[in-house]
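Researcher: Next entry in the queue.
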Amino acid sequence: MKIFQVWVDKFLKIAARRGAGKMLAAVSFAEAVFFPVPPDLLLIPIAIAQRKRAFVLAFQCLLFSMLGGVVGYVIGYYFMDVLGKPIIEFYGLTEKYAVVQNWYERYSAWAVAVAGLTPIPYKLCTLTAGFFKINFLVFLIASVLSRGLRFFAIAALIYAFGEKVRVFLERRFDWVVIIALVLLVLGFVALKYL
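Model: Structure for this entry, 194 residues:
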């Protein structure tokens, strides 16, 4: 599929740019609050292009994701009606308040950790954690552990396999994108029907 090869080329060009780290930081921050694209999709090509910095990039991704998570938590805690609800309504997740609240009451940190590891939108986790007054320290620790595991696993694979990952992505990027999109959609569907 030629269309996906175009995206491979675009991501690899972005990854080779001097400001790629800043773009990764911005995407990581924004995704935790309102942006629909997970930072992994940018972390992978940037880490491939800068393999020796893979773990630094994963840390950067984690740091800015956590900063965005804190902003999302604060929005949920103090400004849910003004800012948080419009974001959640935009993604069609308004009905899930009760479901997510039940998750927090039953599982607390585990609900945050699951959202951090899976395609369940992390922004929903950050906003609702604040709205439902989840213990901030628990929220932060669970987020750091789950998001850190996710980003550092990507960095470890790229660091270990380097050029093989690049070749795999160039040959199979269409499948990687399709799988990532399916997982993203499944995350939204899971929230809608759970």
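Model: The mean pLDDT is 79.
Researcher: Noted, moving on.
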